[in-house]
Amino acid sequence: MDQFTQAIINGVMLGGFYGAMVLGFSVIWGVMGVINLAHGEFIMVGAYLTWVLHTELGMEPFLAIVVIAPVMFVAGYLIQRALVNPLIERPHLMSLLVMFGVAIILSNSAKLLFSATPRIVTTAASGFWRVGDVTVPVTKTYILITGLLIMVGLHVFLQRSRLGKAIRAAAQNKEAARIVGIDIDKVYALTFALCIAITGVAGMLISPTQAIFPFMGPPLTLKAFAITALAGLGSIHGALLGGLLLGLIEVFIGTYVSGIGTNLGIVASFVILVVVLITRPTGLFGGLRPSEDGS
Amino acid sequence: MSAIATPLLNPTRTTKVVVAVLVIGLFLLPVPVLADVELGGINTSLLFSFTQMFMLVTLTSNWNLTSGMMGYVDFGHPVFFGLGAYGTGIMMNKLAWSFPTALLVGVVAAGVFAVLIGMPTLRLRGPYFSIAMLGTFVAMREIVRVSKPLTGGGEGLTLPPYLNRPLFYYLTLTLAVGVVSLMWWIRRSQFGSTLIAIREDEVGAEMRGVPTTLHKIAAFALAGTLSGIVGGLWAYQNTFIDPDVVFFEPRVVELVMMGILGGLGTVAGPVIGAATLFWLRDVLWANFLQFHLLLQGVLLILLVLYAPTGILGFFGVRGIPRLSRLLRRGTDDTTDPPGAARAHAPADGGST
Closest chain A residue to B250 measured between Cα atoms? Predict the structure, then answer.
């Protein structure tokens, strides 16, 4: 029973991280129809930024967010203007391949800059709380809280702010949005920048829990894809629920399949991905875009 | 067919002679090299380089069958290479089978897996198929890693060493010539025309009574089987396999790049693309060892943005599907929901 409760707690914590991790990927796809195959690599860049700030300047990882978010925002803006914008009206395959290229460039640059040695970040928010026989890791609790704050923040931003409304309008009907005077290019660039900033922060969130290395990206991209397929494009509560589901599945496999379970998480995401794509192509929770399926 | 006829599809006498001379030349070339084997050094490694190149030509041709001709761009094709390698490796390591019988097991494993995985994934369209296959590739690596009793897990398997470079040279050359000839024949056959029809308008082809699912799975299984042969040969030649060298991620990028560089959907494209990139990479490797993957990423972006029809397109060969035409159905417009992934959704046909 305790093992079960422990698995639930760990699964929720992992799921909260997944929910925050997937937001950037999901919103970019939902708003501009670009599948960001370099998503995992942007997480990796955020994690390395955390590591550099931590080891060089002794900065507390959770506080490093104030540096990482603006840096990634600017990087995202520039990448959008240079590479993504020309591809938006074009087929998916082109943006897929170009982002594939970006992923290779990012991971190999990281390898050149930081070598392939795995790096570890430590945070002051460490240790465990004991509740009965169950342990609650402090770091992961902070990660969960930060993740939830990002989700709530993004939700409020998209629902209430002028720019957020413009983003939703652009996602729902680009031409109509253009007619009412929304500068689509600008909205796209800012959306991409914002999403990359969130993704970079997700890199900070992952940094205290696993080793950072240049080729950590592809499994994360795949998980983001699986969660997005589950959640529906750009859906924030869907991302949370999909993230929780994947987190729980992964932790339960890891807990109850002895020895080999931890490696099977990626297999679980893959199975979810294919099953959901075939049976429920619009995802389980609806999204930014109106459902056009079968209408 | 005739509208998109190319000099390479209906070769002139000169083209035929040039190709024949090249192939015969490649078969004779190692004779002087063989004499130098005892000396070791550069010549042996040249033989080895050619062997690698023939394998890449074969893999890219197979990839091109489903990705270029049929329009299902596969980001996980090396999974079949991996299954061929592991099937062969397991039989030789665990049961001490001889290479030919072990290879047969590996090849059958790759082919059967292609049918099994093709049945669900080929229902997906456009980018959904591509990513599902990428997922297959990454997931298979983990499955191989955890199936320790069978595959040796992360420690890998050792095959009985057999250092006969000329033999591998001839085997891979024969395979490459065979596969490219097969592709040439397919391209001119009814089967090939059907694949192109699927690429251009799958719903239309289906409405004309073409059994599209059957054709898609057949092409996929054929490509998978042929890549399984390459995997088995590679495993035997390398004498060591582990999940990371067999399911090597850059290999995915490599195949996609070689295919696009030569010219998608053509017969000669994969040969030209694979050969060009292979020697280019050898040059890059020699000079900028640590930068070569980085440059590969830059090259991929430049190719996609500025030369999507590849080398053959540059020389005016027609009939190469522009990247912008590939995956059209998955990309009707920017308001493309994952609903486009459904194979037989009612809205599919009229959504353009």
Answer: A104
Rg (CA), chain B: 20
**Number of Cβ atoms within 10 Å of the Cβ of B350:** 7
pLDDT, tens digit, 9 for 90 and up, residues A199-217 = 999 999 998 888 899 888 8
Identity at B60, one-letter amino acid code: T
With 0-12 / 13-18 / 19 or more C-beta atoms within 10 angstroms meaning exposed / middle / buried, residue B306 is exposed
Q: How far is B147 from B125, CA to CA, in rounded Å?
A: 31
Comparing B308 with A82, the larger pLDDT belongs to A82
The tokens for A23 are: 């937001």
By C-alpha distance, the chain B residue nearest A261 is B146
pLDDT band at B10 (very low <50, low <70, confident <90, very high): low
- Inter-residue contact A74 to A193 (CB < 8 Å): yes
Placement of tokens 């059209």 in the chain: B328
Residue B136 corresponds to which tokens in the numbers above?
């297959």
CB contact under 8 A, B305 and A86: yes
Give the distance from residue A126's alpha carbon to the nearest chain B alpha carbon, in angstroms.
30
Distances (CA, A) of B220 to B118, B175, B211, B223, B336: 7, 18, 14, 5, 26
Strands B157-158 and B240-241: antiparallel
Q: CB A96 to CB B127 under 8 A?
A: yes
With CB atoms and an 8 Å threshold, state whether A93 touches B290. Answer: no
Helices (H), B239-318: 243-246, 249-262, 268-287, 292-306, 310-314
Which phi and psi (to 5°) does residue B158 adopt? Answer: -110, 135
| Residue A278: strand, helix, or coil | helix
Give A123-134 as a DSSP string. -SS-SEEEETTE
* Residues A226 and A269: beta-carbon distance below 8 Å: yes
Interface contact B300-A273, CB threshold 8 A? no
Q: What is the DSSP string of A3-61?
A: HHHHHHHHHHHHHHHHHHHHHHHHHHHHHH----TTHHHHHHHHHHHHHHHHHHH---T
Q: Phi, psi at residue A233, to the nearest 5°?
A: -65, 125
Nearest CA in chain A to B330: A92
- How far are the Cα atoms of A99, A107, B280 from residue A111, in angstroms, in the given order? 18, 6, 22
Q: How far is B338 from chain A (nearest CA, A)?
A: 5
pLDDT in tens, A63-95: 888 999 999 999 999 999 988 888 887 777 788
Alpha-carbon separation of residue A242 from A286, B51, B307 (angstroms): 12, 46, 39
Shortest distance between the Cα of B99 and any Cα of chain A, in A, equals 31
Cβ–Cβ below 8 Å for A92 and B335: no
Distances in Å between the Cα of A181 and the Cα atoms of A28, A81, A109, A160, A187 are: 21, 20, 40, 18, 11
- Whether pTM exceeds 0.95: no
For chain A, the maximum distance between any two Cα atoms, rounded to a whole number of angstroms, is: 60
Inter-chain residue contact A33 with B335, CB threshold 8 Å = yes
CB contact (8 A) between residue B142 and residue A264: yes
CA distance A13 to chain B (A): 23
Compute the distance between CA of residue B72 and CA of residue B122 in angstroms, rounded to an integer.
8
Is 0.95 exceeded by the ipTM?
A: no
Distance from CA of A288 to the nearest CA of B (A): 10
Give the angle subtended at the CA of A218 by the CAs of A212 and A223, to the nearest 5°. Answer: 100
In terms of Cβ atoms closer than 10 Å to its own Cβ (0-12, 13-18, 19+), residue A200 is buried
Question: Helices marked H in chain A — which ranges?
Answer: 2-32, 39-57, 65-79, 92-114, 138-160, 162-172, 174-179, 184-206, 217-231, 236-256, 265-279
Instruction: Check B323 against A112: CB less than 8 A apart.
Output: no
